[in-house]
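Q: what sequence does this backbone want?
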């Protein structure tokens, strides 16, 4: 999503010109006499405020407020904080000017109106822009926030303030002001995207999605906002919603290969995670083996040891001085004792396995479900990649995705071959090896087309690795059997 900061310079200039035009012309068009008059008014106001007697009068503060408001609107370079001085002076008028009943006097009522006036709004806008252009972002934000509070329907001050707040990394203020920009009818989709990024960076996913919904309602055809919504869904692991959004995109625009590619990648990633779970469950199952069979085998070995003890004992009775027989008997007895300890452990394991037989059955069912979901997601990945390639045969991501999918499938098949013992391999290993080679070969044209579309390091490494594997099969004279699909 494009940053809102790119428009800062142009926006600043337009605001300054707008505010000044409302005041009847920029300071550069005024003659020196007018400038000198304003300077004199400022000097007089500064002197009067410093005087204890004059400084206690509401009228003195009213004069000061008007003088500094004029400076803020027309001569901002004379005093970069003139709007704040005027604002505070109006507040002082309200504090000092009371009628006989303690309510606001005539000047106080005038000051109250002035604080809500467009002239005061322009004063703070000018001050904020000046601070912004001077890269004093913190003070610019303060001025622009006040401007946005005076003109509650404004979009310019909140936008400026948000940009300034981002410059000083005050994300909370930036979010607050961008929300105000949106609430006041701001229509720039880039701004909505910036607010979304702020929420996303702070992991406020629901607020990010709410801002996106508002932006998409304003501009339903904005692909940046649509894609950002999908990216957020993926980041937040809300896959079902991301898939639903992408399917809607495909329905609206079936010729857009990127939506199809992204769908393929989602299913591909899901399949990869499922494959990891399957491998782990299968590994745990192999480690546990068959406890009952292990126990029976261990008891059989103990019987063998006991028989050998009986035989050696009988032999020693006949040859009591035979040291070698004595050594053999001691060794066998030691092994028998160790085997008894092993049997005790296996017996405990067998009992535990029997008690957990329900959990084991549950794991088998879980493994079956995982494999079913894996097959489904893998096929959906391939289907969407193929649809993308039907629209754009040279699409890098779709070709790369297809290549990786088939390559990984070949790796899984090869793992099954590697796990075969010699007897099983001699029986059917060569046949399966040919199918593995064929699956590796099936990925080759996709990697080649991906490399032709974009010759980056990742695809080059994968292609080189694949070519080396196929060369090894060729050297072993394995006939590659390519699948029909």
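A:
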């Amino acid at each position: 999503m494009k940053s809102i900061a790119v428009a800062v310079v142009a926006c600043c200039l337009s605001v300054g010109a707008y505010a000044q035009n409302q005041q009847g012309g920029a300071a550069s068009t005024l003659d020196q006499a007018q400038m000198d008059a304003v300077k004199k008014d400022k000097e007089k106001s500064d002197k009067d405020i410093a005087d204890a007697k004059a400084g206690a009068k509401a009228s003195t503060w009213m004069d000061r407020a008007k003088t500094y408001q004029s400076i803020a609107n027309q001569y901002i370079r004379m005093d970069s904080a003139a709007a704040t001085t005027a604002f505070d002076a109006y507040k002082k008028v309200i504090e000092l000017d009371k009628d006989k009943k303690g309510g606001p006097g005539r000047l106080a009522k005038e000051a109250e109106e002035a604080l809500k006036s467009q002239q005061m709004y322009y004063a703070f806008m000018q001050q904020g822009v000046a601070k912004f252009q001077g890269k004093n972002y913190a003070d610019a934000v303060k001025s622009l926030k006040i401007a946005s509070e005076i003109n509650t329907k404004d979009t310019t001050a909140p936008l400026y303030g948000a940009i300034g707040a981002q410059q000083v990394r005050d994300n909370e203020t930036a979010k607050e002001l961008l929300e105000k920009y949106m609430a006041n009818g701001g229509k720039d989709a880039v701004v909505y995207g910036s607010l979304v990024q702020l929420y996303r960076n702070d992991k406020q996913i629901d607020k990010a999605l709410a801002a996106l919904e508002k932006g998409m309602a304003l501009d339903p055809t904005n692909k940046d906002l649509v894609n950002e919504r999908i990216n957020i869904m993926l980041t937040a692991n809300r896959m079902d919603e991301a898939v639903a959004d992408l399917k809607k995109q495909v329905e609206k625009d079936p010729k857009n290969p990127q939506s199809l590619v992204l769908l393929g990648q989602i299913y591909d990633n899901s399949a990869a995670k499922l494959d990891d779970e399957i491998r782990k469950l299968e590994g745990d199952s192999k480690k546990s083996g068959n406890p009952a069979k292990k126990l029976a085998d261990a008891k059989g070995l103990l019987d063998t040891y006991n028989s050998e003890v009986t035989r050696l004992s009988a032999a020693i009775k006949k040859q009591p001085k035979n040291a070698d027989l004595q050594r053999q008997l001691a060794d066998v007895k030691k092994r028998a004792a160790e085997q008894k300890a092993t049997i005790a452990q296996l017996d405990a394991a067998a009992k535990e396995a029997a008690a957990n037989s329900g959990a084991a059955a549950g794991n088998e069912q879980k493994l079956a479900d995982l494999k079913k979901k894996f097959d489904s997601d893998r096929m959906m990945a391939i289907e969407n990649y193929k649809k993308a390639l039907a629209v754009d045969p040279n699409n890098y991501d779709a070709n790369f995705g297809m290549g990786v999918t088939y390559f990984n499938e070949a790796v899984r098949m090869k793992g099954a071959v590697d796990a075969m013992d010699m007897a099983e391999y001699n029986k059917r290993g060569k046949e399966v090896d040919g199918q593995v080679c064929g699956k590796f070969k099936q990925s080759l044209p996709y990697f080649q087309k991906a490399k032709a579309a974009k010759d980056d390091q990742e695809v080059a490494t994968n292609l080189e690795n694949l070519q080396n594997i196929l060369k090894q099969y060729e050297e072993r004279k394995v006939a590659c059997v390519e699948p029909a699909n």
